[in-house]
Amino acid sequence: MRRGFLCGMMMLLAASGGMAQETSTERDAARDVMKQIGGLSQSLGVTSLVAKLAAADKGRDEVIGRVKQLMQTDLLPMSDWITQHPEIGFQETQAVAKLTAYLQAHDFEVTMPVAGLSTAFVAKYKRGTPGPNLGVILEYDALRGTKGAFHGDQHSAQGPVGMAAGIAVAEFLTRTHTPGTVTFYGTPGEEMMPPEAKTVMMEAGVFKGADIIVRSHSAAVTSRSAAGFGTCCMNIDGVKYTFYGAPAHQLTSWNGRNALEAVIKLFNNIDSVRSNMRPEARIQGVITEGGAAPNVVPDKASADFYIRYPDGVYLEQVTQWVDDAARAAALATGTKVKIEHYGHDRDGISLATLEELAFAYLKQFGATGVEPEPGKPKGFEETGSVSSQIPGIGVSAKTSSFSNHTYGMEADALTDVGHQGFVIDAETIAGALYDFATHPEMRDAVKTEFTHIQALFGEYQDALQKAYPKPEIAEPK
Fold this sequence. Notes:
Strand order of the largest sheet: 1-2-4-3-5-12
Strand content: 15-25%
CATH superfamily of the domain at 57-220 and 398-438: Zn peptidases
Helix content: 40-55%
Number of helices: 15
Order of helices and strands: HHHHHHEEEHEHEEEHEEHEEHEHHHH
Oligomer: single chain
Shape: globular
Structural class: alpha/beta
CATH topology of the domain at 57-220 and 398-438: Aminopeptidase
Largest sheet: 6 strands, mixed
């Protein structure tokens, strides 16, 4: 059985280089970079390292037993409660109160707020000792929906899952006098910009000192990422376009300038150039302000856009295109436009050392809906920003039979499919943290892989710059 496991791991690692990036353009342009990343995984002996770490271990089994106990007695009920009491980003006061009270009761010192965010917090283990600093991200915000806030992404469980794993490992460190500590990071507003909360926290130095960061996230399948550069939901630019006109009575509208017509023109302009954009581009916008009364020409109107592309290089071209479409809309309607680039999400880094270890644990603990092939690279948190600076992993066991951002996924958070997946996520995170704390060779491998991949990012970007030439348009004569 061990030989079969090792053969399977070797095949999967060999395949990961070919599947590494999201589009054929990225794969072709960055072939040499991805070959280096694939070779790095082999040189580090990821297959044999994972086999060694995932073998029977009494200490780890005790940690996993504690995780199960915490989940069954306290934390699954807490997850259910947060699911049933959703709060949107930066308003998660009830969820944060429950999470922080539980951490304080388990020997963690809580600091809140942090980075100027009222519902962000840091919880440090009071009994930690010098050694590896094990970071755990906790999320708790609900989605904004037309029917109100709802946990269609199961962020309600991410706090309890992370706490079960981190507390069990922290107790192990103290009980066995193993060097190290655990730090929890409460990160609000995952689903909101500007800008994404983790980016704000990173720029404020909140994550400084973490040697590894882990998190969980809901999923309709059990999966792991290939090593490389990427993010779950594409690179994003958040841009707000506000048009200013002049009011007038609608019966004498020629005396005014219609800002709402400018917003509509912006949407039409974007549609007119979609056929010239690469098909992977996504331009998603909503009108957030369109006037106050039907009989008054709207003198102010706004639209909020998320502009997405799998890599940040071509995304710059797409965003410039949309900006120009807004300027053209203003010129065509006699209005003026204010363009606000208020937030952005960029590529993170995923590591074979951590992805393959976690995947082995997910299967070992009984995860369902397993996807055998590694998916595209993506950092351990959805924006990629922190994962480009600190090594880590996002764990995803199947926790729903529905896709993300749906009412079905919210409902599954309260059923067996959700509960079983949450426990498996917590066990997997605990296993990975335990190995990182107790095996210096694992820490060395993670550091080496991360440092090398991070150093290749510039080469990767340069390769993509050459892959996206702009057509030359002759000057009119």
